[in-house]
Design goal:
The protein is an alpha+beta fold. The chain is built from four helices and 16 strands. Strand 13 and strand 14 form a beta hairpin. Helix 3 runs antiparallel to helix 4. It is elongated, with a radius of gyration of 25 Å.
């Protein structure tokens, strides 16, 4: 799931302790690239064959589905196209029958989803002959080309025949999830492709080439007791230093609107300020907590930029400063009775 997003469990996933039921998530791996695999034909729900055919070899003649170009997408339409292609790339077990709606009420919502507001979700449901563990093993062993398992979650007690299992492939802005529930002699399956589009940049989300009177003001934030007071430093930026920092900021993307958590913020930050086209433009570069860049024009807050540009490293390199150690929270000592 993208940078620091909170995963919101679907209505079916209640979080309680082991013994009374539990919801847990483990993670590992990632998403290598977008591509395609197979898509079964749709059909009505019918009684599945017995015994389960999951051990049968996968047919090599299943048609391929054209992939959508990899990389970030910036519109709802592009995100929908990506999600549809991702969903079609999922190979289902032999004997799977597609149904038009959730075969179980607990599969009416995805096991986990982002709180972001720029996300599309494409969904399909199936019934598959065989046990949940066998169906889970199939999906794990046959991910779409270019995808690897990223995480697994469960809801319910581990010995509950109605245990809900959620598998996740990919991460960040492009994910596939497969939710499984045991039914009478079959396994009910929900498959979701969730794609987040990145809002397009505004004019000043990149440092303008017309910038003048450019200054960089640094504040070291909180420090541990006994250390020097937070370091503050302001310099005028020109030439190569300005070009390095502008390049790092320009490489960032707009953060999609979402609710998320952040590491502890000790207040360390730097503000790049300038005049551009008659406007006061600032880039507040957070060096702790949710590290990113808040853009403001004439005092009006704009986008928050995140990504791999790493302006934090450039700021510290230009100013010759090191991260300020955070002040640990003070805790009152318990009184002796």
């Amino acid at each position: 799931m993208g940078a620091g997003m909170i995963m919101v469990l679907g209505v079916a996933a209640a979080v309680v302790m082991t013994g009374c039921g539990q919801a847990s998530v483990t993670a590992g791996g990632g998403h290598a690239a977008d591509s395609a695999s197979t898509a079964p034909a749709s059909g009505s729900r019918v009684a599945p064959p017995t015994p389960s055919p999951l051990a049968a070899p996968v047919s090599p003649t299943v048609p391929s589905v054209p992939s959508v170009a990899s990389g970030e997408v910036h519109t709802r339409a592009a995100a929908q196209a990506r999600a549809d292609a991702d969903l079609a790339s999922v190979r289902v077990p032999p004997g799977a029958v597609e149904v038009s709606s959730a075969p179980d009420a607990r599969l009416a919502q995805p096991f986990a989803m982002s709180s972001g507001t720029t996300q599309v979700d494409a969904t399909r449901w199936f019934t598959v002959p065989g046990t949940r563990s066998a169906v889970e093993a199939f999906f794990t062993a046959h991910p779409p080309v270019g995808w690897t398992p990223w995480g697994k979650g469960t809801s319910g007690t581990l010995n509950d025949p109605q245990l809900l299992v959620g598998l996740t492939f990919g991460s960040g802005h492009d994910e596939l999830s497969v939710d499984l529930m045991q039914s009478a002699g079959t396994t009910d399956v929900r498959i979701d492709a969730q794609v987040t589009w990145i809002p397009p940049k505004d004019r000043y989300d990149s440092v303008p080439g017309s910038a003048s009177s450019v200054k960089l003001a640094y504040d070291g934030g909180l420090q541990q007791p006994g250390r020097p007071k937070p370091r503050q430093k302001t310099v005028t930026l020109t030439g190569g230093d300005l070009a390095r920092l502008a390049k790092a900021i320009d490489a960032l993307d707009v953060e999609p609107p979402s609710a998320h958590g952040c590491p502890m913020d000790d207040g360390e930050h730097a503000v790049l300020s300038m005049q551009a086209d008659g406007h006061d433009v600032t880039y507040d570069i957070a060096l702790s907590g949710c590290q990113g860049v808040a853009v403001s024009v004439d005092g009006q807050r704009g986008h928050f930029l995140i990504g791999a540009g790493d302006p934090q490293h450039v700021v510290r390199s230009i100013l010759g400063v090191t991260p300020a150690p955070s002040t640990p929270p003070s805790r009152p000592k318990p009184k002796k009775s």
